[in-house]
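Q: Given only this backbone (219 positions), what sequence would you predict?
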C-alpha cells in the first residue's frame, strides 16, 4: 500500500533508509505522470506522528541529494513532500494498532463476508491481521493485512479531539524530540485488542511466524 508500482517499490527501497536516518518514516510514495512532468509524492512523518513544514523541507533536501546521486528516475520530475494529514492513510500494520479506537474505512482486494469495503472502529492487531469493530456486530472482525488495498481514518469529533490532545501534550513537553512521545506508529507492539470474541475472515498464520511474503509484497 505504501507504493503502487514496481517503480514505487524500488524508490521506497532506496529512500526508506534515508528517511529513517533523518528521523522520519515514509507513509506513502507515488511516482505519478508519464515520461514528462512527473511528480514524486512522498508522504512522511516523524515517529511521534507529526510533520511540520520545516521537517518536510529537511526531508526533501535529504531525499534530493540521494536522488541526484542515484538518478533512479528518467526525465524531469517534481518532488513533493507532505504530512499524512488528519484523515491519514493507514499503510503499515502498525498504523492499525497506533490508531486503535479511531474509525476507519478499509477496502480489500477480494470479497469477505460478501463485501470488499468495511467501516468501523479499529481494535488493534492480531499477528498479521487487523481487528475492527463493526456497528451492530458483537464480534470483533479480523481481516488479513495482506488483503488490504486501501485504508484511511475517518474524520469525526473523536479523531479531532485525539489530535488536539496530542498537540497539547507536545506543547507541554517541549523537550520531547524525534523518536519520542505518544502515537509512535512504528513503536507499538501490536498486541492490544478490544475485549470480546473475535471472528477471523482469513486464515491466521501459525503463532510466532511472520508473514514474510506479505512483507515483501507490500513495502
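A: Predicted residues:
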Amino acid at each position: 500500500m505504501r507504493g503502487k508500482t514496481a517503480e514505487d517499490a524500488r524508490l521506497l527501497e532506496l529512500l526508506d533508509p534515508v528517511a529513517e536516518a533523518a528521523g522520519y518514516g515514509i507513509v506513502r510514495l507515488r511516482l505519478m505522470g508519464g515520461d514528462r512532468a512527473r511528480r514524486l509524492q512522498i508522504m512522511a512523518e516523524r515517529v511521534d506522528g507529526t510533520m511540520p513544514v520545516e521537517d518536510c523541507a529537511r526531508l526533501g533536501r535529504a531525499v534530493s541529494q540521494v536522488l541526484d546521486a542515484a538518478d533512479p528516475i528518467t526525465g524531469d520530475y517534481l518532488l513533493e513532500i507532505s504530512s499524512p494529514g488528519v484523515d491519514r492513510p493507514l499503510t503499515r500494520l502498525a498504523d492499525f494498532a497506533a490508531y486503535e479506537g479511531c474509525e476507519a474505512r478499509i477496502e480489500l482486494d477480494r470479497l469477505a463476508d460478501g463485501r470488499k469495503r468495511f467501516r468501523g472502529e479499529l481494535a488493534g492487531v492480531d499477528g498479521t491481521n487487523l481487528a475492527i469493530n463493526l456497528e451492530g456486530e458483537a464480534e470483533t472482525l479480523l481481516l488479513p493485512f495482506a488483503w488490504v488495498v486501501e485504508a484511511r481514518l475517518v474524520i469525526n469529533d473523536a479523531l479531532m479531539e485525539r489530535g488536539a490532545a496530542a498537540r497539547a501534550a507536545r506543547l507541554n513537553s517541549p523537550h520531547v524530540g524525534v523518536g519520542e512521545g505518544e502515537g509512535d506508529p512504528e513503536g507499538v507492539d501490536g498486541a492490544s485488542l478490544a475485549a470480546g470474541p473475535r471472528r477471523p475472515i482469513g486464515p491466521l498464520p501459525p503463532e510466532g511466524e511472520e508473514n514474510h511474503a506479505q512483507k515483501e509484497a507490500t513495502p
